[in-house]
Amino acid sequence: HVTIGILALQGAFAEHQVAFQKVSVRKRVVVVQVRTTAELDQCDALVIPGGESTTIALLARLSGLLDPLREFIARKPVWGTCAGAILLARSVEGAKKGGQELLGGMSITIQRNGWGSQVESFEAPLDVCDLRDPQRPFTGVFIRAPVLLTLDTTPIDPPISVIARLPSSVLPRLVKNTLDQHDTDSQVTRTAVAIRQGRHFLTTFHPELTEDYRFHDYFVRECVLPEMR
Ligand code: GLN
């Protein structure tokens, strides 16, 4: 079996644990909560949940987990959701004064709370690919979600693939400043809400808050199990 750790310092970690118990390959998966380096050492893969990225980073620092997490990310599959996606970014915009501690691992720049305060939370049907049953819509739950600003891959980085996007039909509902309708480059990046790079995975929404476990299934099948062979 594979052991998937859920970083359990703050945020929606319990929901992820429940979700992994529902995936099609659940018999091969053991899920543990991670609060210490010893617990992290037992894991084959890790999920960094949604919550507050600054709080999670602060608690990770206080727990002596920052460097062990960075070393883990360099070697093993990691999935960041929402706040976790911010922590996996190489750089961030919209951070508080004094900056924001990141773990890095994915070659992207992300904007904290990027959909703005007017639309702090929304749900939207996503265009998905590479999931099981891709014709079936997936409802993305966005809670003060970050926005992908740029993909910053260099020739030595693994390529990035987009697994889910906000469809153009929902864009007019979202704040105007966030998305320049005339700038196709920025639309291509900013509408991407689930991306994969090598063994790492990122979703700016919360798949653990819906009862559709296809993203959990995807992470196990596509990012975690291939690393175990
Ligand atoms: N806005 C939060 C942050 O900046 C993320 C919100 C979430 O994880 N739902 O960390």
Automatic annotation (TrEMBL):
One of its GO terms (biological process) is pyridoxine metabolic process. Its EC number is 3.5.1.2. InterPro entries: Class_I_gatase-like, PdxT/SNO, PdxT/SNO_CS. The active site is at C82, H206, E208. Keywords: Glutamine amidotransferase, Hydrolase, Lyase. L-glutamine binds at G51, E52, S53, R112, I143, R144. It catalyses: L-glutamine + H2O = L-glutamate + NH4(+). One of its GO terms (cellular component) is cytosol. GO terms for molecular function: glutaminase activity; lyase activity. HAMAP family: PdxT. Belongs to the glutaminase PdxT/SNO family. This is glutaminase.
